[in-house]
Amino acid sequence: MGVVCFDVKKLVYVYLVRYAEEQQDLALLSISTFQRGLKDPNQLIRASALRVLSSIRVTIIVPIMMLAIKEAASDMSPYVRKTAAHAIPKLYSLDPEQKDQLIEVIEKLLADKTTLVAGSVVMAFEEVCPERIDLIHKNYRKLCNLLIDVEEWGQVVIINMLTRYARTQFLNPNINESLLEEGNTEGKTFYPSDEEEDEDEDEKEKEEKKAEAMAKRKPYVMDPDHRLLLRNTKPLLQSRNAAVVMAVAQLYFHLAPKAEVGVIAKALVRLLRSHSEVQFVVLQNVATMTIKRRGMFEPYLKSFYIRSTDPTQIKILKLEVLTNLANESNISTILREFQTYIKSMDKDFVAATIQAIGRCATNIGEVRDTCLNGLVQLLSNRDELVVAESVVVIKKLLQMQPEKHSDIIKHMAKLIDNIQVPMARASILWLIGEYCEHVPKIAPDVLRKMAKSFTNEEDIVKLQILNLAAKLYLTNSKQTKLLTQYVLNLAKYDQNYDIRDRARFIRQLIVPTEKSGALSKYAKKLFLALKPAPVLESPFKDRDHFQLGSLSHLLNAKAGGYQELPEWPESAPDPSVRNVEVKESVPEWSKCSAREKRKEKKVDKPFYSDSDGESGPTESADSESNSGSGSDSGSASDVSASASESEESEEGSESDEEEDKDEPKHNKKKLQDMKKPTHNTESEQSSEEEKKPQRKPKTRKMSESESESEESDSESSESESDESDSEPEIRKKKKVDPKASKPVKKEAKKESKKEMSLLDLDDFEPAPSPQVTPVNFMSSSLVTDLEGLSLSDDVLAPATISPSSSMKSFELLHRITGEGLSVEYCFSRQPFSPDANMVSVQLHFTNNSSSDVSALHVEDAKLQSGMRVKEFPEIEALAAGDTTTAVMGIDFCDSTQAANFQLCTNSKKFLVSIQPPVGELMRPVFMTENEFKKEQGQLMGMNEITEKLTLDSHCRNEHAIVQRVTTAANLSRVPCGADHECRFAARTVTGNSLVLVTVAIKQEAAQVTVNCDKMLIGTMLVKEILQALAQ
Amino acid sequence: MVPLPPVVAAGRGRRVNMDLSRPNLQLSVEGARTGPQRNWGEAGSEEDFKVKNETKRREPPSPSSTMIHSLFLINASGDIFLEKHWKSVVSRSVCDYFFEAQERASEPENVPPVIPTPHHYLISVLRHRIYFVAVIQSEVPPLFVIEFLHRVVDTFQDYFGVCTEAAIKDNVVVVYELLEEMLDNGFPLATESNILKELIKPPTILRTMVNTITGSTNVGEQLPTGQLSVVPWRRTGVKYTNNEAYFDVVEEIDAIIDKSGSTITAEIQGVVDACVKLTGMPDLTLSFMNPRLLDDVSFHPCVRFKRWEAERILSFIPPDGNFRLLSYHVSSQNLVAIPVYVKHNITFREGSSQGRFDMTLGPKQTMGKAVEAVLVSSQLPRGVLNVNLNPSQGTYTFDPVTKLLSWDVGKINPQKLPNLKGSMSLQAGASKPDENPTFNIQFKIQQMAISGLKVNRLDMYGEKYKPFKGIKYMTKAGKFQVRT
């Protein structure tokens, strides 16, 4: 404007914007000034001109606004671009016709790389075209990376949008876990209350679903972009802005794997210190979360204790959370708290507390009687409201087991003289009527009293009096006939039509007349039917279908403009849409997948190093082989086993370091010392032979990274006396070698990163190579590579025979039945990396016929429920006389049932079946002696199976026993201090149940003990081991 | 040309805005009050009435959504004394729903923060006995709005010293200017106090005087460049002759003590408030002696999070002036030292209309520091008519209407413990109350952070001068409650 004075100018703007709609002509006069302002060299003036211009709600200037926005969107100054983004929704609300053009502008602004613009443009996106999710793809990674620097209000909008985006683009990280949980942990479920209920309801249906889902299940690997989002939002939990914290919390709740959701609890609890309005919203959300993930907030139980100064609505919400958190272990403290709450002056709150006690009592059987007694005591409270509320709750509780509590019913019958609250009176009457058999003497008397006061009662009480009369008439008509008639007569002339109606109905039903219909026969059934006890549920039970933190969730009703949170997709859409030509940051592949892999195998135990889980090899080297790994997942322990191997080889030179590792190492040494003299000359020779070609490359690598001593040579050689094909992996491992200092580590990481991203295109494609280690093993992570390696070079059972050389082969297809094609299979004991729950089976094809066989593949698997098969990639051609190998994975569901399927060539089909020996249904785990003992202590009784046998003369030494046992079953040796005892541990592949084997030797007698919570497996394993030892 | 009319319009505009808040208000409030009351008896028709009313007002349902449509400020007596619309005008009759909810709630703080109405949602916060009611029309995260409203209040407080109805009315122009800058089309634009202060100068007595004489204004003459910088929280071109940086470490003890004196729950929440007046663009680092104490922290956006994660050092370019650098929670593993204890004996005898009251305060685990500014307050049972007490020190008051007893003790002298003793008279004939009052205790301990947190050092980079640095510790009672 022409005026110089800033103050006036500002106020003119305020005025203009406020009244433009009403006085359009006047407003139009000012337009030209703003247009001039849009060309001003000062960016701030350009911005504020656009801002005011776009705020003028006059339809005629829509084209001018459109033009101005378009121009501003490509302005030099990010601030002007931000203003342009702000102007978009304004124009859109003025004229929705412009949508298409506006989307173009949004698309352009979304590509902006400044933090200033990001928040505003996403806001515009949300308002104009939230359905155009495709616009986000290219900007996804950028938004994630910028997020932390965006201003706080923008963060909220972006996080909410990304939550929705992630739900459409990524796979549910909990899908495997939820299935696993259902599948394996019957009885020991993690969240007992929820699951048990469910199970009772529709077990069959669930069973079917489960089988279906299991069949569908694929190995879950978190998309690195998914990980990126989770990682970049986590620091925002530390924001001072409650809205940002809540947004991150909901993002984690909806998107993160179960094990990681816990991090939000602390931040949410912190918000409870804030203003009461913030508390109100946060508590609502916490209440919803506690229903699904109770464990998360249990440590913070005390933060939800109620103070007398809290506003009532906060108190009631806290009560809700406390009730949700109650379980067997903390119920006594919670009930003690509740006791003090009952004495509060806030009567609404007291009533809510009584209801909460009722809910605790129904949910936790142990305290039901205690609660009931407490509530009965409250019946003598002076406050009528308290008494009334207790009556109502007691009524519900009694319904669960009325026989036991007739004295309480009697006590309540007496109360009817004093209590005036209609609801309570009605409850008592109902109770007496329902259980009149338990109080045969009192009931008619109560009816008599009620008949006297009938006319003065409230309507609900009257209805219950009628109810009581009818029930008594049916059970005890001698005493109550007249009374009932009297009551019915009174009701007949009542003012309320409901009561008149009810009286008429009851009379027809129970009083026998000539005309009475067929129904009166069933009167007793109608009135005295067994009623199911009410379920006291949280009002927050089903709220989580709304996005947490949203207005709709708070109101438990869909608010206008609410964007439904989409369900996870069945299969992930193409992740490559997010690839941007110029990558600013390569996603850290190795890190993500390595972590995910481990998590997937073992969910509920914490993986032991959160922050330095950067890459498998480095980590395993740093971590101590004996401390964390035993409790950890299979793969991790494998890795650390391999690490301990390398450490050991270095030990000669650095033996004074790492004192805490000493103990097991001594054991190992002792073991080796002991064993050396008794070594079979034969096996030693063979290992010596194998050693020779290998040692050279290895030594070279070793000397590169670490100084090596002679001793290490001899030691490592033993562990290496296994497969020859693990060699390249060793080299790789050495490349990323352990002890490397920081810069080296980084380099190594980068290297692996590059490798990964090169390979990521064929990530999920079946491996084309028939090698034991298909290519996709590598892309999934380095760790898996090492798994394969470490499995075999098990230091602790040095005598383990190398799997590939002496692997027992079974015939799958005989040469004659296969018309020239013969197939053998063996269990390679390698982890099947595409799916950790599968046993990998190595197939060896030989074409003995004179013609080529082509298109070898698996078809039409006929499996027991729950079993799954991952076929080997089709073998295109097998020339005459040629042989080839392939690997397939089978999930046997921890049973020795055979997996049947058809092996097809281009022309023929052969029905074949693979039956696993029980020993192959497990994978070795590493654990320390103490852990072993602890675990064994927990698997006593039914889970322990013991057999005795006499040992042959040639297998009385430890070495031979170890060898035989490990051949029979895929077990790993556990270090053992005691002589004459060998211990082994493994976990079943699917169920992850621990299998512990102890072989105690006394001269020529031996005792084999197997501890496993799957008894069938235990029994079979004992037999297998006995057989192996007896040979 | 154009210059003249807008000026006139501006003058009018101002008046119109002011005027709007007066006469109409009475009417609409009247409507709000009488409307629901008339219909009180028939529960069923109430809803219909609302809907009818709403449709009569004929508010056009807007096609698109905006985060915050309008803001109404309502004082304790239920008058709408200020309204601001960021988009088309929403009739103030929408506040009727709020008044209804207010009537239903027994206490002012029990008004639900979110109230759904047929066409809008009302989200309100209560601060300084003023309700800030935001009108929204569609899905918005409620915390987003609540947090923003609190930020508005904080800004007012920052500008006017207090946030009262009088202060807002006195500074109505600044208030409008602020609201205009803080929200654009309902989306928060500039909420950072440093930027706002560059845009709109806070009023001071001196400036008001100068302004009235010279006719100059509050609005900054210079354009705010802070908005454009990478450190949006700091204004540019800061200059001081005395460069100083003060940090206050304030810890609050939240505790619930039960009848027998044992601690049910106790935790320490702390904040580091800063007052930084440094020239130029200083880059500060603050390190603690024992950062492991801090369990959960939340930062001002200026703090570099990565640095904290890696080194446990606070590194930041501070905003100019007062700000809260950090708030933290001390990990619950550490036992919390409770600095005061309370001995109490409150009895009501059955039958008689008298009750006895006896309470003594004493220091405990204070590490030799004096416990000051002690204030005990308690809500006595409704049956208590009056009290007749005798404090050994300080003064006490009892409000017979609200039954609120408060005792201003002052400083606790460990040699002579403060004691409050006497009798309570109860309603004649009423049975003895079975509720137990709880005591809320406030106190302050200077020069001590109860968790033992200590600042190690403060370094400044990026500027040449040597600033004056100061650190102050204080412990306060937060929600400190003793149950009886």
Largest interface: A-B, 104 and 102 residues
| Gyration radius of chain A, rounded | 37 Å
Bulk shape of chain A: flat
Number of helices of chain A: 47
Strands across the major sheet of chain B, in which order?
11-13-9-8-23-21-16-19-18
What distance separates the N and C termini of chain A? Answer: 103 Å
Number of domains of chain B: 3
Q: Categorize the overall geometry of chain B.
A: globular
Quaternary form: heterodimer
Number of strand elements of chain B: 23
Approximate strand percentage of chain A: 5-15%
Estimated share of beta-strand residues of chain B: 35-45%
Q: In percent, how helical is the residue content of chain B?
A: 10-25%
> Radius of gyration of chain B in whole Å, from Cα?
27 Å
Q: Output the number of helix runs of chain B.
A: 10
Strand elements of chain A, count: 15
CATH topology of the largest domain in chain B: Beta-Lactamase
Task: Report the CATH C-level class of the largest domain in chain B.
Answer: Alpha Beta
In round numbers, the mean pLDDT of chain B is: 79
Explain how this protein is built.
Chain A: It comes from Knipowitschia caucasica (Caucasian dwarf goby). Chain A: This is AP-3 complex subunit beta. Chain A: It is a peripheral membrane protein. The complex is a heterodimer of chains A (about 1050) and B (about 475). Mean pLDDT of chain A is about 70; it is low at about 180-205 and about 580-805. In chain A, strands 10, 11, 12, 13, 14 and 15 form a six-stranded antiparallel beta sheet that branches. Chain A has a five-stranded antiparallel beta sheet with strand order 1-2-3-7-5. The radius of gyration of chain A is 37 Å and the shape is flat. With about 1050 residues, chain A is of the alpha+beta class. Chain A is built from 47 helices and 15 strands. In chain A, helix 4 (about 45-55) runs antiparallel to helix 5 (about 60-75). Chain B is about 25% helix and about 35% strand. Chain B has helices spanning about 5-20, 25-40, 45-55, 95-105, 140-160, 165-170, 170-180, 195-200, 205-215, 305-310, and strands at about 70-75, 80-85, 115, 120-125, 130-135, 185, 185-190, 245-255, 265-275, 285-290, 295-300, 315, 320-330, 340-350, 355-365, 370-380, 385-390, 395-400, 405-410, 420-425, 440-445, 455-460, 470-484. The longest helix of chain B has 19 residues, at about 140-160. Chain B is of the alpha+beta class and about 475 residues long. In chain B, helix 2 (about 25-40) crosses helix 4 (about 95-105). The model of chain B is unreliable at about 1-65 (pLDDT under 50). Chain B contains ten helices and 23 strands. Chain B folds into three domains: about 65-230, Beta-Lactamase; about 245-335 and about 450-485, Immunoglobulin-like (Sandwich), CATH 2.60.40; about 340-445, Immunoglobulin-like, CATH 2.60.40. Chain B has a nine-stranded mixed beta sheet with strand order 11-13-9-8-23-21-16-19-18, with no helix packed on it. A five-stranded antiparallel beta sheet of chain B has the order 2-1-5-4-3. A four-stranded antiparallel beta sheet of chain B has the order 14-15-20-17, with no helix packed on it. At the A-B interface, helix 1, helix 4, helix 6, helix 8 and helix 11 of A face helix 1, strand 4, helix 5, helix 7 and strand 7 of B.
